[in-house]
Design brief:
The first copy, chain A, is mainly beta. Chain A has three helices and nine strands.
């Protein structure tokens, strides 16, 4: 039985419940790559609660999906953070860091196949066991912005981003 | 004072509070364009609570931002929906429809300028008064997927998408 909801005012709490869980190879936050682009080969799954399985129909036509999830190990929110890719403090909303006022994560991952209520994914930069809040299709017409200017991120060269974006992940895998 | 949080299990409620509110020209859900691409000229604002203003620093370097928000007028969730762009029923997670189990909205909008804790935006497809949950920078390196295949959306031609994506908005504006 799905809950009914109503209009929300600014002072209300907004209450969500996980629609499922994200499974990945990343069991320690400190070794989890910071974005899918830095873990292109990393497999993972979105295991959706059986009662929501019908909502996944037609998703298999999309090559990429957004995972929207709860950073359950984000720790205390901070408004100014030093991002992984650069040693300069930035406003948290100008970064993708987990320690946000509402610790909501967003990753674009490749959808390999659907098996019932399980999505098999590649490029999963998410900690194993993360509560999943929503799945949306990546729609090129809406989401591919050709002329985007990316602020401080544009000043990080690709080699530096690749090295720092993986955190300890690759080094650890070679041990 | 920002709240402290802890790990979350699958059965827990996840509780967020609005970081602010989205202001737009759209005062009726039935006349609100369904995506920013269908309201390229539409101005709007993200009014962030003053206590979170410091988190907006450095955002002005980015041309586009994600707004993550609560569809406060989404109504009852449905798992199978007929999307605005096509008269065929689809699983809700294969659409961007509001009536999702967790009614979380995602829009990529153009950031024109920041004035303190207010972001001036263009391409705002969001209902006026919508509770804002998070803001993230659009980062081309992470978010522009060149080889995306967009399922049933690829079968909707651009002219049809432009016509249906605006709902009644354009017609109404001409009255």
């Amino acid at each position: 039985m799905l809950p009914v909801r109503r209009g929300t005012s600014m002072s209300d709490n907004i209450i969500y419940q996980p629609i499922g869980v994200i499974r990945s190879e990343h069991t320690r936050a400190a070794q989890t790559p910071i974005q899918p682009v830095f873990c292109e080969g990393c497999p993972g799954r979105a295991e959706v609660r059986p009662e929501y399985g019908a909502g996944l129909r037609d998703l298999e036509g999309f090559s990429h999906v957004y995972l929207i999830y709860h950073f359950h190990e984000a720790g205390k929110p901070r408004l100014v953070v030093k991002p992984f890719l650069q040693d300069v403090e930035r406003g948290v909303f100008a970064t993708r860091a987990p320690c946000r006022p509402n610790p909501i994560g967003l990753s674009i991952v490749r959808l390999v196949r659907r098996e019932g209520n399980v999505l098999h994914l590649v490029g999963v930069d998410v900690l194993d066991g993360t509560p999943l809040l929503d799945i949306k299709p990546y729609i090129a017409r809406f989401d591919r912005i050709e002329d985007a200017r990316s602020g401080w991120q544009d000043k990080v060269d690709d080699a530096t981003a690749q090295r720092r974006g993986r955190r300890e992940f690759r080094e650890d895998a070679q041990k």
